[in-house]
Amino acid sequence: MADNHELGSVGTNVLFENDKVKIWELVLDPGESSAWHHHTWDYITVGLMDSVIDRELADGSKDQTTPALGVFRYSGAHEAHRVTNAGDKQHRNLLIEIKEKPI
User: Fold this and answer.
1) Distance between CA atoms of residues 57 and 21, nearest Å
2) Are 38 and 77 in contact (CB under 8 A)?
3) Rounded to the nearest 10 degrees, how much is the dihedral formed by the CA atoms of 83, 61, 80, 95?
4) Which of 11, 34, 44, 97 could join 26 in a cystine, given CB atoms 3.0 to 4.6 angstroms apart?
5) Rounded to 5 degrees, what are φ and ψ at 7?
6) 63-92 tens-digit pLDDT
7) Cα distance between residue 68 and residue 51, in whole Å
8) Cα torsion 55, 16, 13, 80: sign
9) Which domains are seen in the chain, by residue range?
10) 57: number of Cβ within 10 Å
């Protein structure tokens, strides 16, 4: 538990995993939120459609992003958060966790 939030999975389901990467799919219907979670490893997200996502951090701060189809984003952030689909259509993205430490 971090900042009074139970932590859950970073995605909806695992599509692939080996000793180097773990690939998740995240699917959120309009208004649906992910579990509170944090990432153990750095990660890349890939938009599978255009959407609007609200991100809430454990300290209560919020921001909004607009993932787009085919756009890749790298993140090294490891703070607890959850995301909510703020759009009017389903949100889908892939999330690739990189298990190796930087050289």
Assistant:
1) 25
2) no
3) 30
4) 11
5) -95, 140
6) 999 999 999 999 987 889 999 999 999 999
7) 6
8) negative
9) 13-98 (2.60.120.10)
10) 15
